[in-house]
Amino acid sequence: MSFDFSFFLYLGIALIFARLLGEIFERIKLSSIIGELLSGLLIGGPIFILFGVNEFHVGKDFIFSFEKMSEAIEPFAQIGILLLLFIVGSQIRIDELRKAGRRNLFISITDVSITFGIGFLTGYLIIGSVFDVWNIGIAAFFGLTFMPTSIGTTVRTLSNIKKLNTKEGQTLLSLAVFDDFLALLFLLIVSGLVLSDSSGTGLGLFVDIIIQVAFIVVLLVIVLYLLPKLLEFFEERFNTFSLATTSYFSIGIVLAILLTTAFFAEYLGISAAIGAFLLGVGMQRNKLLMTDPLDAFIKIGEGTLIPLFFFAVGSSFVLEEFKFILIIIIPIAILAKMMGSFTGALFSTNPIKEFIFVRKSKQKKSNKAEATKDVEKRPEEKFLKNIKPNIISSAKIATGMIPKGEITLVVAAIGLAAAQSFSSEFGIIAGELYSVIILLVLVTVFLTPILLRFVFRTPKHKEKHAEKIEENK
Predict the structure, then answer these.
(1) How far is CA 70 from each of CA 158, 162, 263, rounded to the nearest angstrom?
(2) Rounded mean pLDDT of the chain?
(3) Where are the alpha helices (DSSP H) in 194-328?
(4) Would 426 disulfide with which of 2, 8, 153, 419, CB 3.0-4.6 Å?
(5) At a CB cut-off of 8 Å and minimum separation 6, what does 189 contact?
(6) DSSP-derived pairing of the beta strands 62-65 and 55-58
(7) Cross-strand bridge partners of residue 62
(8) Residue 63 three-state SS
């Protein structure tokens, strides 16, 4: 049995450049994801392939091939996705989401609904007009990539300008968690239903959908409830993990469960990454079992495998036949996200609610004409008085929700894999759309800090007032 030791070289080069460029971008106050994506774009092949260079001859006996490099990285990149989603799932606290309040939930639901709708229509119309292929499945995945928010860029910027502890800053923290959570739930449904292997019609198609829904429900029950309970039983009854005699026993067991869950999720037509996310959500309450594995997964994942995933994403960029008309998608995605979050924030504030809802309820309860006039007047006056600051606050929230990041790229990667499994034609179309999503991530991560500094700036008259107060002290 022979082994191709060039595998080590490809892996080493990819990891070196992903880590170095990631570190450089972190040091200049931008996301490391940009550096990792650019490392794949620059070193992973797209730039060289654009100029007709697919491989290098190094000496007489060795050929450096970008195709082989991609094949070497792919398994590690896939494990990187699993670790990333497992970590995200384990860090989402359902109880904290409940405590975040109905207002934030209302903003997030409004945001993702509007954003997904615009994204779906954009994808459907552009795919149909540019590629002459009208496909609901690809359009649905495309709409999903519009939904998530990468809060890292927003948090870093607000922290630098000392605005993180403002009302809008705290709202943005919970909204980003809501958005990612809802996006992943949407992804669960879309990956299980829209792009299932069903090819029937009528009753047969209906039965296939029912079966697919049953698979999703079974996976949810097993991963979110039965599996965590089974592990708790073994620990309580036999001290399986706390008294293990082998080193880091729980890390190996949890990793094995993670990989097995990913396989069955993919086998059931859902997604390996979504299976990993659900497992993280289900096991987060088991502090004893999760302490060592989660710490190890964060170190291994963020140190090696997750950067390799983003390197692989960058190396998948299509440059040779890229249709530049697709660039129009980027401003549409940004405006869609801003429109969704702005609408949700504006219509969740008290003056708007009182003007629309409370006014009507008070009018019904009032029997006197004079009281009715007073009730009619008060909400309108309050509405007019507070509408300007609410618009400004909503604009700040909308701007902070712009950046895209790791969840967007994971959704896009899952959609690309699903499209490639259908046909080569769908794979080519999804590959070009995938490249647009990569550009979208790069643009939003660069653009958001500039816009945030603008919308959160303090007016000059308030600055002077603050300076006078300081002087008087």
Answers:
(1) 37, 42, 22
(2) 83
(3) 202-221, 227-238, 249-267, 272-283, 287-300, 306-315
(4) 419
(5) 216
(6) antiparallel
(7) 58
(8) strand
- The SS3 assignment for 13 reads helix
Tokens coding 353: 């609610």
pLDDT in tens, 265-310: 888 777 888 889 989 988 887 877 788 899 999 999 999 999 999 9
**Per-residue model confidence (pLDDT) at position 401:** 94
Rounded Cα–Cα distance for residues 36 and 306 (Å): 9
Cα 93 from chain centre: 16
- Taking the CA of residue 7 as centre, how many other CA atoms within 13 Å lie in the half-sphere pointing to its CB? 10
Rounded Cα distance between 215 and 195, Å, is 14
- The label of the residue with tokens 């790069």 reads 442
The β-bridge partners of 64 are 56
Note the pTM of the prediction, 2 decimals.
Answer: 0.82
Q: Is the pLDDT of residue 471 over 70?
A: no
Residues near 172 by Cβ (< 8 Å), separated by ≥ 6? 151, 154, 155, 158, 397, 400, 401
- Quickly count helices (H) and strands (E) in the chain: 22, 2
One-letter amino acid identity for 187? L
225 vs 222: CA distance, rounded Å: 6
CB-based contacts of 454, cutoff 8 Å, min separation 6? none
| Residue 51 DSSP symbol | T
Domain boundaries, the chain: 79-304+395-457
CB atoms within 10 A of CB 35: 25
Residue whose entry in the numeric block shows the structure tokens 């459907």 = 124
Please count the other Cβ atoms lying within 10 Å of the Cβ belonging to residue 242.
Answer: 12
**Cβ neighbours of residue 302 closer than 8 Å, sequence gap 6 or more:** none
Cα 430 from chain centroid (whole Å): 18
451-465 as b/e: b if 16+ CB within 10 A: bbeebbeeeeeeeee
Q: What is the pLDDT of residues 229-271, one digit of tens each?
A: 998 898 888 888 888 899 899 999 999 999 999 999 888 777 8
